[in-house]
Design brief:
Low-confidence stretches: 56-67
Number of helices: 15
CATH topology of the largest domain: Rossmann fold
CATH superfamily of the largest domain: Glycogen Phosphorylase B
Helix content: 40-55%
Radius of gyration: 21 Å
Largest sheet: 5 strands, parallel
Strand order of the largest sheet: 3-2-1-4-5
Structural class: alpha/beta
């Protein structure tokens, strides 16, 4: 049995980030590999501070945004208990690694046959605890461990590395046994900036079937009425107008599965207003919805997995390249909008999605992605 380590972004409360790691672990465990995700955190940052950072809720942010709400570490533990419970139940984690030295020590003490970096925006410098770790800088003198990337993402279609970083990661990626990325634009970024030929593969969440996710729902809710499910990460007036217009046109109830209050702007005194609902409920919401509005990459993916009509609002700040790459592959670019435009939204609401065609294309891409993964593990 091969022992495999996965290195991804810190897992705290981001549903998509958690589920992509869950999916990759599940795919590998189904092949009877011994798999663990490295519990990498920011250097020298305590668990409570890491939580604060990941949900953009540090005291500094609060002061800058004029919020009156100040969160203690126990507050953060409380409002993130549901996603952390999911992680504890379904994802195998290593010991906490919160220093560069600990990363080196962990891999010296654990004989991994294969180490995989991915998925999500692991190659976006400003998102990573130590960008060189995500190119296996701690393994540069190790020639026995197989080094792979699976669906690694830069998040954007422009090069965000400085000259020094580019030089170092170019050297490190040359030591990889195989490189795969999540966006077509990332293939070009690797070629142009790192002299590396990368293969395109699907996000790990797309390697599982709808039924795999439905099995996670142990207590199902009753679907009482037709609904529009919204999953919006960055609220704005324009997005609110889009949702209100969709509701008006479709005449259905709007539902969500997110904290009631935005931690970046609300000063609510009720801690429950900031609590993250269970991930299982988020998955079930896609299954029950009649229509979906989202600005999330994984919100878009799960709309597709559950074969739902949807529109995706381009989230440029978090990386628009991810959306365009995925949807162009599936001939679904017409589901994207970037502004409140009633005539454009009305047009998209009237356009059906041919999921027979979409699913057939996904089947082909899934086979190619799994072949890349397993062939390189077994080299």
């Amino acid at each position: 049995m091969k022992k495999i380590a996965i290195l991804t972004q810190p897992l705290i409360s981001n549903y998509g980030g958690i589920l992509q790691d869950f999916a990759l672990q599940r795919v590998l465990k189904n092949k009877n590999y011994d798999v663990v995700t490295i519990d990498r955190r920011y250097n020298g940052v305590s668990k409570s501070k890491l939580l604060l950072s990941n949900i953009k809720n540090t005291i500094i942010n609060k002061l800058q945004l004029g919020s009156k709400r100040n969160f203690t570490s126990s507050d953060i533990n409380y409002i993130t208990k549901n996603p952390r419970s999911f992680i504890s139940k379904y994802i195998t984690l290593s010991e906490v690694v919160d220093l560069d030295e600990k990363m080196v020590k962990h891999f010296k003490n654990n004989a991994y046959d294969v180490v995989i970096v991915g998925s999500d925006q692991v190659w976006r410098p400003r998102y990573s605890p130590n960008i060189y770790d995500y190119f296996f800088g701690f393994l540069k003198d190790n020639s026995t461990t197989t080094k792979l990337s699976y669906a690694a993402s830069f998040g954007v279609d422009t090069w965000e590395y400085n000259e020094e970083q580019t030089k170092e990661v170019k050297n490190l990626i040359s030591l990889f046994d195989a490189v795969s990325v999540r966006e077509k634009s990332a293939v070009e970024l690797c070629k142009d900036n790192l002299d590396t030929d990368a293969q395109f593969v699907l996000d790990p969440t797309l390697l599982l079937e709808k039924e795999d996710y439905l099995k996670l729902i142990t207590k199902k809710s009753d679907k009482s009425s037709a609904s529009i499910f919204t999953y919006v990460l960055d609220q704005s007036e324009s997005k609110t107008n889009i949702i209100n217009f969709v509701q008006k046109k479709l005449g259905k109830e709007v539902r969500t599965n997110q904290p009631k209050e935005d931690q970046k702007s609300s000063s609510s005194k009720n801690l429950n207003d900031f609590a993250y609902p269970p991930i299982e409920g988020w998955i079930e919401s896609f299954d029950q919805a009649d229509f979906i509005v989202t600005d999330s990459f994984h919100g878009t993916i799960f709309s597709i997995i559950f074969n739902k009509p949807f529109i995706t609002i381009v989230n440029s700040e978090r990386g628009a390249a991810r959306f365009k790459s995925l949807l162009s592959l599936l001939d679904l670019e017409d589901r994207l909008i970037d502004a409140y435009d009633e005539s454009l939204i009305s047009e998209k609401l009237s356009l059906p999605i041919d999921y027979t065609k979409v699913d057939a294309r996904l089947k082909e891409l899934t086979a190619d992605s799994l072949a890349y993964l397993f062939n390189n593990i077994e080299k």
